[in-house]
Amino acid sequence: MSSVPANTLYITFIVALGGFVFGFDASVIAGTVNFITETFSLTHWQQGIVVSAPTLGALIAMFFAGVISDRYGRKQTLLCVSLLYVVSAIFSALATSFEMLLIARFVGGLAFCSLMIAPMYIAEISAATHRGKLVSINQFNIVLGLSASYFTNYGLLTISQSDSSWVRVLMLDTQTWRWMLALEIVPALVWFVLLFGIPESPRWLCTRGQLDAAKLNLVRLQFADVEAQLQQIQTSLSKTSLSLSQRIQGLWSARLRWPIMLGLVIGMVQQLTGINVIFFYAPTIFEQSGVGTDASFVQAIGVGVINVLFTIVAIWAIDKFGRRLLLLIGLSGILISMLVCAYGFAQAQYYFDMQALSVISQATEIQLSQLMPLLNQVFTSDVAFKAALNEQLGATLLQAHQGLLLQQGTHLNATLILIAILSFVAFFAMSLGPVMWVLFAEIFPTEYRGVAISFVTVFNSLCSFLMQFLFPWELARFGAAFTFFTYAMFALIGLIFVARYLPETMGKSLEAIEAEFTK
Question: Which CATH class is domain 6-346+415-518?
Answer without folding.
Answer: mainly alpha
